[in-house]
């Protein structure tokens, strides 16, 4: 059985891959995609897997956006750390739904369930999968709590979001910054991935605030914004190609 793992956290991918090969040594892991864009490109151009393990929150937005761009004809087992998304995953007769941290016995149960499906089960599932999620409506304004007030912020005014030691901050293009009590995962899910990207574990960046890219000695990218931020922003070698593509194309 050939498997594709759609997961943007390296540790989560490695853990799932290790459990899969331990539970089912004959499984062949074809690869790992980390974003909506990478997954779309893979499914359009690479060897098709028999089964996909798909995290719902990816580096550039919700995995459900994949189904708005291409027709997916492969059964999926959804994975996520957020159980409030279960209702979305179960809008279809999904193979299974695994809540992180994934337990080996639950993973084995999901694989066994998939193996019991016949051609009719898969055909019915794929028909439903095409209607998984309606067109996403992204926020063009955020309400920022400030003491006893709520400050409306136009997303076009945002330069980036930054997190450090469990605290998240919103940086505006005018140079001001404010604490923002949400995780980067929660924030990214509400933003248009054409305008914002999860650059790394610390930053979400706005396209229009990127001022300069420098190719670093190890093929990472150093990103400079039009505002001052607390630390340097690096794009990993693995994500550099995707980031450059995002900079010059608008979906």
Automatic annotation (TrEMBL):
Superkingdom in the source lineage: Bacteria
Alphabetic keyword roster: DNA-binding, Phosphoprotein
UniProt modified residues of type 4-aspartylphosphate: 55
Cellular-component GO terms for this entry: cytosol; protein-DNA complex
Xref: SUPFAM superfamilies: CheY-like
Residue ranges of every copy of the HTH LytTR-type domain listed in the record: 142-249
GO BP annotation list: regulation of DNA-templated transcription
Protein name, UniProt field: LytTR family DNA-binding domain-containing protein
Protein species of origin: Candidatus Parabacteroides intestinigallinarum
């Amino acid at each position: 059985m050939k498997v594709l793992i759609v997961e943007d956290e390296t540790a989560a991918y490695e853990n799932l891959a290790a459990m899969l090969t331990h539970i089912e040594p004959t499984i062949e892991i074809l690869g790992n995609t980390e974003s909506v864009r990478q997954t779309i490109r893979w499914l359009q151009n690479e060897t098709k897997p028999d089964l996909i393990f798909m995290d719902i929150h990816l580096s550039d937005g919700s995995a459900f956006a994949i189904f708005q761009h291409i027709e997916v004809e492969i059964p999926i087992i959804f994975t996520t750390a957020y159980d409030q998304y279960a209702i979305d995953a179960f809008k279809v007769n999904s193979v299974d739904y695994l809540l992180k941290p994934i337990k080996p016995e639950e993973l084995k149960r999901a694989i066994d369930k998939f193996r019991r499906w016949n051609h009719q089960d898969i055909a019915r599932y794929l028909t439903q999968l095409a209607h998984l999620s309606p067109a996403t409506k992204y926020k063009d304004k955020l309400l920022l709590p400030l003491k006893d007030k709520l400050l409306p912020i136009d997303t076009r005014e945002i330069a980036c979001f930054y997190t450090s030691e469990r605290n998240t901050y919103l940086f505006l293009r005018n140079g001001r910054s404010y604490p923002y009590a949400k995780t980067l995962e929660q924030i990214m899910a509400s933003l248009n991935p054409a305008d914002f990207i999860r650059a790394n574990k610390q930053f979400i960046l706005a396209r229009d605030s990127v001022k300069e890219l420098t190719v670093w000695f190890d093929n990472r990218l150093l990103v400079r914004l039009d505002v001052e931020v607390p630390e340097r922003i690096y794009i990993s070698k693995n994500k550099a190609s995707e980031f450059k593509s995002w900079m010059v194309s608008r979906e």
